[in-house]
Design goal:
The chain is of the alpha/beta class. The protein is built from 18 helices and 19 strands.
């Protein structure tokens, strides 16, 4: 293993009762952006995604589809793998909770919790929602049509009475509050941390962690009448992939505790409360950060199968282009907030930020070099204040972008890059290299060189968000593959004058409604 610092980031594992939609694509995309950024910034990265295949909900969906649970899981899990490939995600592993390595990890964690006295056998009676795979207290329920009781999420609930193992969650209140306080940014955004804290401060009840009414899951060691509660099973995936239960493996020592568990706001409680408590109970360090992002609506409406407005990532990518969709999803909404998907805002972003701002700047400057500088990268003359100023702005950019990325302010990191793109457009327009062609060709060469150098650095910085398009720009600039890391940013490296160029092709077409 290398001596580089490590960075381990995870997506939630996706339920296989649903086919992939924009919400799933979004969570993994955010992780892909962060993982790619960290790799380019010199980290040894492990990026994990996968599918959550156990539980009553999956068992029921399989039966409804006329398949055995494993046939059903194989099929849907494959769709999530295809999505990962299609979206150009750079995940290092894809875990399925039906794998043997995972069963071993779950049973080991369970035994540790039991040995440490945190699990006991009792009887559960209360409300359970299969759709949410969650238990609810009477006071949390809301009224549905015809007096039906519903979970606070609107999901149906059923009354359950059965023998069950319990986890002593109530014993972890103080430890959890300490965990949130001692590390300044365990849960982000801050409002989410306050939400979790007040939930804990309101008092915790022990958690039922096994069920006897279905079979599709990991059996409790020593009592296989009981199947582990699907969330213990699901959360453990993050450790399985890091090599658990072998805590002495190089991999586990390097990557555990995880740096970030990325989740949607709906599953924050499981990650920021149950999961750290389970780990503390087993004597294992919890992840350093849990980040809860917001939800997308479609043209102002909640996305749901029953409304028929589910956005299929495969379809929108076909229509708008992959890097365009990646850019839009990460740029449009401050990361952490809810966001609305609208065709018009997608088109605006594509045409203004990509086609006009970055695309035109690159295409105009590179074609001028090709035509007017004998097809080679020119040698710059002495620099004016305007040249030095714009170069300084791009030379300093990594520091600013990194600050945003360190707190997962993804859209802000892109905004910072595009501020320099916009300044560079102002510089280019102000210098009028096309007019200098006749009056002062040497000065023209300097302006074109400076602009191309800005494109070089911007393209290195946009690789995490638009890997394929950035690569095209870097190819046009003849930057070798091993000179595309963030160590190549700043004033220490510059474009090599005299490099033979080829006729550039536009990388960001305008979207024209047909
Ligand atoms: N299987 C559990 C997670 C277990 S992790 C140990 C699960 N799966 S899920 O498939 O239902 O959801 C996975 C993620 O997709 C969640 O983080 C959820 O927030 C996200 N999204 C689902 N719909 C969404 C939107 N409309 N918008 C943004 N993200 C949403 O929960």
């Amino acid at each position: 293993m290398s001596g580089k610092p490590s960075f381990y980031i995870t997506t939630p594992i996706y339920y296989v009762n649903d086919i992939p939609h924009i919400g799933h694509a979004y969570t993994t995309l955010a992780c892909d952006y962060l993982a790619r950024f960290k790799r380019l910034d010199g980290f040894d990265v492990m990026f994990l995604t996968g599918t959550d295949e156990h539980g009553q909900k999956v068992e029921k969906s399989a039966a409804a589809a006329g398949k055995t649970p494993i046939e059903f899981c194989d099929q849907v899990s494959q769709r999530f793998r295809e999505l990962a490939e299609f979206m150009n995600y750079s995940n290092d592993d894809f875990i399925r909770t039906t794998e043997e390595r995972h069963k071993i990890a779950c049973q080991d964690l369970w035994k540790k919790l039991e040995d440490n006295g945190h699990i006991y056998l009792d009887k559960y009676s209360g409300w359970y929602s299969v759709r949410d795979e969650a238990f609810y207290g009477e006071a949390e329920l809301i009224e549905g049509e015809g007096d039906a009781k519903l979970a606070p999420t609107g999901a149906p609930v059923e009354w359950v009475e059965e023998e069950s193992y319990f986890f002593r969650l109530s014993a972890f209140e103080d430890k959890l509050l300490e965990f949130y306080e001692n590390l300044p940014a365990t849960v982000l955004p801050k409002s989410r941390k306050n939400e979790v804290k007040s939930f804990v401060e309101g008092g915790l009840r022990d958690l039922s962690v096994s069920r006897t009414s279905f079979k599709w899951g990991v059996p409790v060691p020593g009592n296989d009448k009981h199947i582990m509660y699907v969330w213990i099973d699901a959360l453990t995936n993050y450790m399985t992939a890091a090599g658990y239960p072998d805590q002495n493996s190089e991999k586990f020592k390097k990557f555990w505790p995880a740096d970030i568990h990325m989740v949607g706001k709906d599953i924050l409680r499981f990650h920021a409360l149950y999961w750290p408590a389970f780990l503390m109970g087993a004597g294992i360090d919890p992840a350093k950060r849990i980040f809860a992002h917001g939800w997308w609506t479609n043209e102002g409406q909640k996305i749901s199968k029953s409304l028929g407005n589910v956005i299929d990532p495969f379809e929108i990518v076909e229509e708008f282009g992959l890097d365009q969709v990646r850019y839009f999803l990460m740029r449009e909404v401050p990361f952490g907030n809810d966001g609305d998907f609208s065709r018009q805002s997608m088109i605006n972003r594509i045409n203004s930020d990509l086609a006009n701002d970055l695309g035109n700047l690159a295409q105009r400057s590179l074609s001028m070099i090709f035509k007017n500088c004998d097809g080679v990268m020119p040698t710059p003359g002495s620099l004016t204040d305007a040249d030095s100023e714009i170069l300084a702005a791009v030379d300093e950019l990594l520091g600013k972008v990194r600050e945003h990325v360190d707190v997962q302010a993804i859209s802000k990191s892109l905004e910072a890059i595009w501020r320099v793109v916009s300044d560079a457009n102002g510089y280019f327009a102000g210098q009028e290299p096309w007019a200098l062609k006749k009056t002062d060709p040497e000065r023209m060469a300097t302006v074109l060189y400076v602009t191309a150098e800005i494109i070089r650095q911007i393209s290195i910085l946009t690789q995490p968000i638009m890997p394929a398009s950035s690569a095209k720009l870097l190819d046009q600039l003849k930057i070798p593959d091993d000179e595309r890391g963030f160590d190549q940013l700043g004033s220490e490296r510059r474009l090599v004058s005299g490099t033979i160029m080829e006729k550039p092709e536009g990388v960001f077409p305008r979207y024209v409604e047909s």
